[in-house]
Design goal:
With about 150 residues, this protein is an alpha/beta fold. The chain has seven helices and six strands; from the N terminus they run βααβααβααβββα. The chain is about 55% helix and about 15% strand. The protein has a six-stranded mixed sheet with strand order 3-2-1-4-6-5.
Length: about 150
């Protein structure tokens, strides 16, 4: 079961945000099976903006962080088909086109989950469910993935 990560998960893992969420994001990423994680390219572009803007990182350090994420996990490009779906998703559900693009790319790459704090927890589209990993009650699908990861060699 593949899982995509949204920008906020990556930003917290980089230390941008409160200590509790940063720690939780790092722990979550460590527990996820690397072979099942996907990064939509859009999330890395947004991470660049967050790190250079909100966190005021210099461009060189930000570049290294972005490349580091791409070294750890596969990155999925945004296709024209995904963008068309994102526009439809945005119109139909009131999402920003950029959030919709992340969901669309996740669906296009057969992800079952998109971990995000910023989107509506539980929203499902084309088989992808958006899950907020920071809520007090973890969704059973995420629990199942994390438990199966513990059993992997």
């Amino acid at each position: 079961m593949r899982v995509a990560l949204d920008t906020n998960i990556l930003a917290y893992a980089e230390g941008v945000g409160d200590k509790a969420r940063c720690h939780a994001a790092r722990k979550l990423i460590e527990e996820l099976p690397e072979t099942l994680v996907l990064l939509p390219a859009q999330t890395l572009g947004e991470l660049y903006r967050v790190l250079t803007g909100k966190a005021r990182w210099n461009c060189d350090d930000t570049r290294q962080a972005i490349l580091g994420w791409a070294d750890c996990f596969p990155v999925a490009d945004s296709t024209w088909t995904a963008f068309q779906s994102a526009v439809d998703l945005s119109v139909a559900h009131g999402l920003s086109v950029w959030d919709a693009l992340i969901i669309s790319v996740a669906a296009e790459n057969r992800c079952r989950m998109l971990l995000s704090e910023d989107m509506h927890d539980g929203f499902t589209w084309h088989g992808v469910i958006v899950l907020n990993p920071f809520v007090s009650r973890t969704h059973p699908l995420l629990v199942s993935l994390l438990e199966s990861a513990k059993e992997m060699p």
